[in-house]
Design brief:
The chain is mainly β. The protein has one helix spanning 443-448; strands at 3-6, 17-25, 30-39, 41-49, 52-59, 69-75, 80-87, 91-99, 102-109, 117-125, 130-139, 141-149, 152-159, 172-177, 182-188, 193-201, 204-211, 219-228, 233-243, 245-253, 256-263, 271-279, 284-293, 313-320, 329-335, 346-351, 357-362, 367-372, 384-391, 394-399, 405-408, 423-424, 431-438, 441-442, 455-456, 461-463. Strand 12 (141-149) and strand 13 form a beta hairpin.
Length: 476
């Protein structure tokens, strides 16, 4: 099932102690299924650990009290139930991430009622709950951004103000994981820093910092940084005029790269255009001004397309018959650049010469290969379910009801950037595909309509409208 969680901060009377709502997709609309009592809810963070699902709510305030617990809820199979409370102080953001198989929650502390100069906290999963792991000095922290560069984990923190609202010209900071904890790697001059956005593009890593206010003006220069491998630091490469900026959102469409900035306030009006920028190959240039009113956030998403990107999970499912023994055959492939380039992002599902299913993946952190070995030989002219998933850098391959096979992606999994359209089948594959789903998109449905975004290799693969039993193929 699909869900949406809405964080309600206050009602029309200014009350913060109100219900937030969880909605479930019915197939036609989202319907409210659970009311969750919250206190000045500022955001939700969903994550999963092993087979358990969680929602953490950032509780910012209850009236004048900013020192209240934020709450983690666990899915019971029927609803989200309170699992754990953690102490927070005017929290603006909660960020989940994992490093080498260990899960963490980081909390951005903004104000405790008397000072913005307070610690933000990182909690570590113990196997049963989250316990305090590391305190990081921050100054009105508003945003956390976790990412990987060259196999190293980083956590960027946007600091907005210090000394109780009197100084907005405070550095935002980037911390590096040293193997046991986060250590300060870089301080970046900022002016009311409100948001970080990490993205990778054309083989380079970038950070965008939204500058909100310098104490006298909301008309600021927000900054794009690029990772300098030689210097081991982020270097400013572009300054972009913004107006009370609160958020950056990076996305790509058909090989083009974009950044959208949410402009909040000009100093006398909330009716301020937010701006969409397009990458020219050397810089981001304005492409479109969009009328907004106190804009706080951008979110990019796609509906009914053949590819999508996610730093947390990707999956491919297929129901197939198999090729004769002695021939290696590709069932599914998608590439970042050119097929055969081992350095590019790629996801390839094969039936090996012995009939075993294998998956080869390169998603920025090196190549990992997972193979379902004997007795999972498939040269039997029967249909079989194949499910491949990537979650937090762990690749999982399942075939039918046999135990899953897992492998850790070597290095950092950042974004699975597949620029080329998916390819189904190969000349060596003498079988049928009854169902092929990639990121929730039914590729065979698109291929059947001759959609140019999907390549169907003929005569190696045929589409089975129905399985031999008379029902459509299962996606696993």
């Amino acid at each position: 099932s699909s869900y949406l969680a809405v964080a309600n901060s206050r009602d029309s009377a200014g009350n913060n102690d109100i219900n937030s709502v969880i909605y479930q997709w019915t197939g036609a609309t989202f319907s409210a299924v659970q009311l969750v009592p919250t206190q000045g809810a500022y955001g939700w963070e969903y994550f999963s650990i092993v087979d358990s699902h969680y929602l953490a709510v950032a509780s910012q305030r209850s009236g004048s009290n900013l020192n209240i617990d934020s709450v983690i809820y666990q899915w019971t199979g029927a609803a989200f139930a309170m699992f754990q409370s953690i102490p927070t102080h005017g929290v603006f953001d909660i960020e989940y991430f994992s490093i080498n198989g260990t899960s963490y929650l980081a909390v951005a502390s903004f104000f405790n009622g008397s000072s913005n100069d307070i610690n933000s906290e990182i909690y570590q999963w113990t196997g049963t709950d989250f316990s305090a792991f590391q305190s990081i000095p921050t100054h009105g922290a508003t945003d956390l951004e976790f990412f990987w560069v060259s196999g190293v984990a980083y956590l960027a923190i946007a600091n907005q103000r210090t000394n109780v609202n009197t100084d907005f010209n405070v550095a935002s900071e980037i911390y590096r994981w040293d193997g046991t904890a986060f250590v300060l790697a870089q301080s970046v001059p900022a002016h009311g820093g409100s948001s970080w956005e990490y993205f990778s593009m054309d083989g380079h890593s970038y950070l965008a910092l939204a500058n909100h206010y310098n104490g006298s003006s909301f008309h600021m220069q927000s900054v794009i940084f690029r990772w300098d491998e030689t210097g081991g630091a982020f270097v400013a490469v572009q300054y972009i005029p913004t107006v009370g900026a609160t958020d950056w959102q990076y996305f790509s469409v058909d090989g083009s790269h974009f950044l959208a900035v949410a402009n909040f306030f000009s100093g006398n009006s909330y009716d301020v255009d937010s701006v969409l920028y397009r990458w020219t190959g050397t810089a981001f240039t304005p492409m479109q001004a969009i009328p907004t009113h106190g804009a706080q956030d951008w979110e990019f998403f796609t509906v009914d397309v053949t590819t999508s990107s996610s730093s947390s999970s990707s999956s491919t499912t297929a129901t197939t018959t198999t090729t004769p023994s002695g021939v290696e055959a590709v069932l599914f492939a998608a590439y970042g650049t050119l097929p055969g380039d081992a350095r590019s992002d790629q996801l390839v599902v094969r039936v090996s010469e012995t009939g075993n299913v294998s998956v080869t993946l390169n998603a920025g952190g090196g190549v990992v290969q997972v193979e379902a070995g004997p007795p999972l030989a498939l040269q039997d002219a029967e249909y079989h379910d194949v499910l491949f998933q990537l979650t937090d850098g762990v690749a999982t391959l399942e075939v039918d009801d046999w135990p899953a096979v897992q492998a850790q992606l070597p290095g950092a999994f950042a974004v699975l950037d597949l620029l080329a359209g998916p390819v189904l089948g190969s000349a060596a594959f003498a079988g049928q595909l009854a169902r092929a789903v990639f990121h929730g998109v039914d590729l065979l449905r698109l291929a059947a309509t001759q959609d140019p975004r999907v390549t169907l290799v003929q005569p190696g693969v045929a589409i089975a409208v129905e399985t031999p039993g008379g029902s459509s193929g299962s996606s696993g």
